[in-house]
Amino acid sequence: MKKCTLILMAVLTIAACKKEKEDSQEANSSVEQKTTLNPECITLADYYAKTTLDEKIAWLKEKGDSVCKDTLEKAVLKIHQVKGKVTNQKGKYSISWRHLKDTIKDYGYNKYLRLIVDTTKQQVLGLSMVPDYKKGTYCFSTALIRSLAKNYAKDDNNVEFHFSFAIIDKSEDPVIVIQVIDPNNIQSVNESYFDYSTDPSKKDLLNSINIPL
After folding, report:
1. Phi, psi of 141 (to 5 degrees)
2. Is the pLDDT of residue 209 over 70?
3. Under 8 Å between Cβ of 163 and 93
4. Looking at residue 59, what is its pLDDT?
């Protein structure tokens, strides 16, 4: 009887160890799968630490899509918001958010939205998607476009994005500004402009500073 009891205890011990091992493997597999599907997001600290435009462009291409969504949204809206007076708008190009959304698709920092412009006439003619951010051109991140839509577009069918040349405050050179028009959103959307071609905060120092973010 004692021998049978010992055998039974041994069997139960082996079974318990086997189950514990299987549970551990299953847990590790679950954690691995969760990590794969939902990688931990990062901040923009390393981006801001870069000192040249080329370094910033390279960092965004490699790691931009891993930045926490709320962090990225807050950053792009803040840095691109024009706080000065916008005057002398011309050459406006309009596109519905529905069509613009089809254009940017699910691209991240592997693609940029670039405006086709006639600088002599100061006219925006159209837009296209390009694989890289190019200095001296009017390139916009899809993160910025989506953030604008999320915050200002309440009705996908009636919302329009307007791109135009304009002067900010007393700047000598025109820049590109964006206006999101949604007739169903009365929260100052018609007064909100966003500048893609230069850094509004440094416009008095140098008008040709590009923003790849």
Report:
1. -75, 150
2. no
3. yes
4. 97
